[in-house]
Design a protein that fits this description.
Number of helices: 4
Number of domains: 2
Strand order of the largest sheet: 2-3-1-5
Order of helices and strands: HHEHEEEEH
Strand content: 15-25%
Number of strands: 5
Shape: globular
Length: 139
């Protein structure tokens, strides 16, 4: 089983780790806690079509906090963070990269939304978590 972002909850149910009745509540709570995160800059995200090594090289040259938030394939990832001009940095798009800003409220999968993890951990601690009946593969 494999899940991406909130899809991890579906993978946890399909693998037998979470009960189907508990998963929606924990997914909803995760969304609620993320929405509560308020920073001076909630950040931004962009999908980037380029080889992963090239994206990593470019990110090292960009001032500010920006990380690879998701790796979707060897030639497509999502970046997230706080950039001086948002996710429309001049290096994205370019000759060998194509970047598309994603319309989101926060830079998910980055340290910007880390404050949401503590309340969510309390919800998860109360859940009936079981050993998987089907192998779960993290992404």
């Amino acid at each position: 089983m494999i899940g991406h972002s909130l899809g991890e909850y579906a993978a946890l149910v399909a693998s037998g780790i979470l009960n189907l009745s508990e998963a929606p509540a924990s997914g909803q709570r995760a969304c609620q806690e993320m929405a509560k995160v308020a920073a001076d800059d909630n950040g931004c995200m962009a999908a980037v079509s380029a080889p992963l090594g090239e994206v990593e090289r470019i990110l090292k040259t960009i001032p500010g906090y920006v990380v690879i938030a998701n790796i979707n394939s060897p030639v497509q990832c999502v970046i997230g963070g706080k950039l001086p001009r948002g996710c429309s940095h001049p290096r994205f798009p370019g000759d060998r990269t194509a970047g598309t800003k994603i319309a989101v409220s926060h830079a998910f999968h980055t340290r910007i939304v880390a404050p949401a993890s503590q309340p969510l951990r309390k919800v998860i601690a109360r859940m009936n978590i079981q050993a998987p009946t089907i192998r779960l593969s993290p992404m």
